[in-house]
Amino acid sequence: MNTDPIADYLTRIRNAQMAGHKVVEVPASNMKREMTRILFDKGYILNFKFDEEGYQGKIKIALRYDSKSKRPAISELKRVSTPGMRRYASSGDLPRVLNGLGICIVSTSKGLMTDKEARRMNIGGEVICTVY
User: Fold this and answer.
1) Three-class DSSP labels, 68-131
2) By 3-state DSSP, what share of the chain in percent is helix, strand and coil, each rounded to 5?
3) In a structure prediction context, what are the per-residue pLDDT tens digits for the chain, which is 132 residues long?
4) Cα atoms found within 13 Å of the Cα of residue 107, Cβ hemisphere only
5) Minimal CA–CA distance to 130: which of 20, 44, 12?
6) Alpha-carbon distance values, 80 to 38, 71, 87, 128 (Å)
7) How far is CA 96 from CA 22, 30, 82, in A?
8) Cα separation of 7 and 11, whole Å?
9) Terminus of the chain with fewer CB atoms < 10 Å: N or C?
10) Is the CB of residue 38 less than 8 Å from the CB of residue 105?
């Protein structure tokens, strides 16, 4: 049993990139699906596919690399709020990642969104992770 599935999701992506894999497979959940959609929309991953086989299902994520240097598109994935220490922020206190170059995924009452979208909608929430 995994106590922090979001940290496991981020670690699987991080490890697959360090190993140079093109595709990583992670167990699915609604929150992981939304996080994958955000990463795809912001250009951090190449593609994704939801497989509904089995009890839980899986998410297959095609990782994005630079064509010349073969470096991954994601430099750092960092978990901010953990099950033991939840981190909440109001819309004015949401962290800016690399002065706006990275994104921060926030769980709000309107669903998962980036920090920029949450600021625009004037909504705070739980800061899940930072990506750049």
Assistant:
1) CCCCECCCCEEECCCCCCCCEECCCCCCCHHHHCCEEEEEECCEEEEHHHHHHHCCCEEEEEEE
2) 30, 30, 40
3) 679 999 999 999 999 999 999 999 999 999 999 999 999 999 999 999 999 988 899 999 999 999 999 999 999 999 999 999 999 999 999 999 999 999 999 999 999 999 999 999 999 999 999 999
4) 17
5) 44
6) 17, 24, 7, 6
7) 29, 25, 19
8) 6
9) N
10) yes
- Written as one letter, the residue type at 5 is P
Q: Which of 22, 31, 28, 23 is nearest to 51 (CA)?
A: 28
- pTM confidence score: 0.95
The residue type of 20 is G
Q: Which two tokens stand for residue 23?
A: 């595709």
The amino acid sitting at 70 is K
